[in-house]
# Entry
Amino acid sequence: MAKEATPGPAASQLTVQQAREMLRAADLRSTASRLAVLQHLAQFDKPLSHAEVADALVPQGFDKSTLYRCLVELADANLLSRLDAGDHAWRFELRRGDEHEAGAQHPHFMCLDCGKVTCLPEVEVKIVPSGKKTLALGDVTEIFLKGHCTECK
Ligand SMILES: [Zn+2]
Ligand SMILES: [Zn+2]
# Structure
C-alpha cells in the first residue's frame, strides 16, 4: 500500500465501548476482530472491500479469513450494509444511526475506470415509471450510479 486512505469529512470515530454496545444490541459476542472491523469501518464514509479491510487489519495481527467471516456476520446482523457493485467484490460499510430502515440506504457512485465506490448520502434517486404500465420491479435494495470519477475523467 503506497498511500494511506484518508477518512472523509463525514467519517467518525467509534469507541470500543460504542462498538461493544452495537454488538450487544445485535446479540453478537464482542470479539477482538469484530470490534476492530467495526472501528475500522467507522473511520470511512465509503464502503470498503474485504481486501481493503484485510490490508489495514492483517498487519495488526488479525486473520484474513476471520475478518471475512466477521464482515459477513456483521452484515447479517444488519450492523453493516453489504453492497454488490457488480465487480464480484462485496463492499461493506457501517450503517449509520439514521439509516436503520432498509429502504433508507443512500445511493452509491462507482467509477468504471478505477473501481472506486463513493457514498452519496445527500442524493435521492427516484424511479418514476414513464408509461402507464406498472413497473415490474421487485425490492430495490441498492442504487448504483456508474460513470467516471473526477480523477479519471
Ligand atoms: Zn475513477
Ligand atoms: Zn455508502
User: Anything to note?
Assistant: Residues 47, 93, 106, 108, 119 surround zinc ion (ligand 2) (CB under 6 Å). The two ends are 24 Å apart (CA to CA). Residues 64-76 form the longest helix (13 residues). Strands lie at 48-49, 80-84, 90-94, 108-111, 117-119, 144-147.
